[in-house]
Amino acid sequence: MRQSMSKERIMSSAQPEPGQLNWRKARRSMNHGDCVEVAAAAEKIAVRDSKKPDGSWITCSPRSWRMFVEEIKAG
Q: Which of 1, 4, 37, 71 is deepest in the core (most CB within 10 A)?
């Protein structure tokens, strides 16, 4: 049985280590600017709004990110 996302701590407000991150958009992203970008950051996944690249971002564990993506794909 798959663990519910609500039972796990999904996101953290802790920022990744300083330095340049390799941000990327989803391959299926349209050019509307309405998407998020992700980057690997010190054993975390950083997520930000593509319209505000200089704004803040959040981080989550790789496991939590995979669970999030699986939930989206499952509908």
A: 37
**Residue 61 pLDDT > 90, yes or no?**
yes
Residue 69: CB atoms within 10 Å = 13
3-state secondary structure string across the chain: CCCCHHHCCCEECCCCCCCCCCCEECCCCCCCCCCEEEEEECCEEEEEECCCCCCCCEEECHHHHHHHHHHHHHC
Per-residue pLDDT of 7-58, as tens digits, reads 445 555 556 544 578 989 877 676 666 788 899 987 899 988 888 888 888 8
In the chain, what is the greatest distance between 2 CA atoms, to the nearest angstrom?
A: 40
Q: How many domains does the chain have?
A: 1
Residues 67 and 56: their CA atoms lie apart, in Å, by 23
Range of the domain at 66: 5-74
